[in-house]
Amino acid sequence: MCSDFITEATKNPDFEWETVSDAEFKCLTGTSYLKPTSIPNSPSGWHGPNYVHHLSRPFRLFQLDEFSVIGEMIQATTSTMGKYYIGLFDDSGEIAFQIAWGDAWGYEKKCRFSVFYYPQNGGSHSYSSDYESTTTTWEGNLWWEQWQGGEGAIYGSIDGDVMAYPWEVDNSSRIISTVAIRAQRYSSWALADMRLHDISLIADLSQHDPNDPYPCDGTNSGNEPSVTACSFVDGIFSMIEDNTHSEWTGPWPTLHMITDVTLEGGGMYICELIVDLLESISIGEFTLDTPLDDHLTATQTDELHAQGIKEFMQDAFPPEANLLLVAVLAMGIIEVYLEAMTVAPTPFQLAILYGLITVFGIAMFAALYAVVDAVLSERMTPGVAIQWLLAALLGLGIESIIEKMQYLKFYSKYWNTRNLPWGKRGLLLIGLSFYMLAVKCFIISLICSLILKMWELSISYYDIFS
To answer: Which pTM was predicted?
Structure first.
């Protein structure tokens, strides 16, 4: 980490962040931490170098997913002092976040670790560890989260201990554009051994602005539900409105909103929401009763469950999928056998191969018929059917057709190597290759014609329902 940051960052004496003096940050050979060196004795007071890195992709404050730092203070003597800062700055150069640790106590070993948030309208918030008098390593974290429906809040933690109450954000759209590190020495006091082990900065660029939580997709209009769907939803809302009433209770004012619905079949729904003046929301009562299934026997309940499982299996494994699976298995067995063939097949084995090719052809034809039937019965839309047909076309593998055309040369070489006469089995093998080629070409031509037909149907389908 340290070598990467120094490579990307530049020393910037004009960067306005505390009193600036010359010095270096180094990652010493054989180490994995970054430490300041050669900070001069002057000017008096706290002073040190600023190293700055401008982010190639700035982000907004509400996209801050993690800003974490691992720092260490070596406390070997009481005669040293020093401070180490890592800060995030916005596009106007104002500091927004800072993680720091240091020893500002002369003649005493006393160091602590802190995380800071600086609102855009001024002020600051901090959360700190206890003071330590021995060598200590800390890890600090800052991140943004939604909070009470406003601009969100900043949360902080040190070594996994999260602060009890977050800091409210005044502008969650604030742009974070710069990372800077700084080390400080106090006058001529010996500089403490301070080590930066890791910086992690993660922005969730998919996070949406809390003030505009519904992103647009660039179109002029949104989803237009059907009249039936709108009528159903309107009916639900009307039923809730007609059966909801509110009442106040005291002495602490509390609003109770009660929805009490009883359906014609005997079903009952009761929900009570309680809201107080502090906007604390709780559920006072929730009841849902469906008496229609109370009189079912155990056998009837089991039958309902079985019916549900049966419907699920039918949806998950429709006929076209099962038939396509049979075709794929048949062709897979054929391909594996031909690749592994080392001796001439027996007549029985040839008969099995011819049979498997026939099974493949029948299964593919039946699967295509099932797809057409699904479209005509409106169980599948033409668009989905086109996807099925394209998948089947790719599954056949156009390249394997070209490969099969080379089988004649393969068989000729095989028989010449074996010094066997050209017999009936050789001719049957050649015939097998051309039979498989013919079946595949027939299926491919059938699929292509069906794709064109489904395309025509899809156009008329959307003309009807648009």
So the answer is: 0.47
